[in-house]
Amino acid sequence: xxxxxxKFWKRFDFLLIVTVIALSIFGFIMIRSATASLPAGxxxxxxxxxLSFVVGLVVMVVLIFIDYEAYGKFYIPIYVICNLxxxxxxxxxxxxxxWGARRWLSIGPLVFQPSxxxxxxxxxxxxxxxxxxxxxxxxxxxxxxxxxxxxxPIGMIVIQPDFGTGMVFVFFIIAMLxxxxxxxxxxxxxxAIGIMMIPILAMTLEDYQLDRIRVFLDPSLDPQDxxxxxxxxxxxxxxxxxxxxxxxxxxxxxxxxxPAKQTDFIFAVIGEELGFxxxxxLILMYTFxxxxxxxxxxxxxxxxxxxxxxxxxxxxxxxxxxNIGMTMGxxxxxxxxxxxxxxxxxxxxxxxxxxxxxxxxxxxxxxLEF
Length: 370
Description:
Layout (H helix, E strand, L loop, with lengths): L5 H6 L2 H22 L7 H22 L4 H5 L1 H18 L3 H4 L5 E3 L2 E3 L1 H19 L7 H20 L3 H17 L4 H21 L2 H11 L10 H13 L10 H4 L11 H33 L4 H25 L17 H18 L8
Antiparallel strand pairs: 1-2
């Protein structure tokens, strides 16, 4: 357990907590607007989101007072459990009929997506694995061990298939290796291999997967089906102009033209109703959030703690960049929600878990000046 004293309160990042609360409140408001025209009404959605936030807040507080070094002692069991969950998805999972991918597990009344939990498990276990090999991270054999360690769960996620989540994993692993001091020549090598693999991967894609790529490049090729979401989203954001149409006044939003408006495409609601200023304000809050997280990583007392924060920061950053990008047609539609903003109880709790893990590192950092 973390000792509570004067140093604890000096190290506690109150600005990070305030930012998270501000983002969440912003999310509550936008979820109310996005669901106001739905038959069930907005109260049901907003109340569930607020309840999830409160539960997440309790979990976050508990995590703050757990010494993060304890996770390092159990990094192998954590890693094994993560892989066992992913194996269970491949064997017992469901979702192919509804969503075209086997990603979910059901245990009694509990239905969950293991890959979301595995994100945290792999960040914790990989952080410790890198910490144990920090003096030899640029040794080719050590790097191969790290890549195999990280690549096994990614492979099982891609098989589901869930390329969007797989890309989240790849991104935060690259960020962690970069922060750990991996030589730039390896990143250039990875890039070259990736480019050479593109033709091979293209030949293995099914027709419907190739169609998704074509529609991403030009949504007008299929405006009534796969391109519909992006076209309506771009129309909503564009119509918001500078000041927006006004809260609860969005045409695309309130008249039901915008799909998944309270989840994946909630940024389009923000763009339409609050305009450029609303979207820019949200991005500013996210920027400040990233700044606080990077500061905590910089002043962590050891590499293990720093890797945990870097992994979480990169994970959140990818979600933010990909979600906002896909609403404007700049990135493919992957179904990744917007942290602290999109509707989703489990996702909100997991966001708060992220903050709790970061703060558990922050309260033990070396420097008091923050």
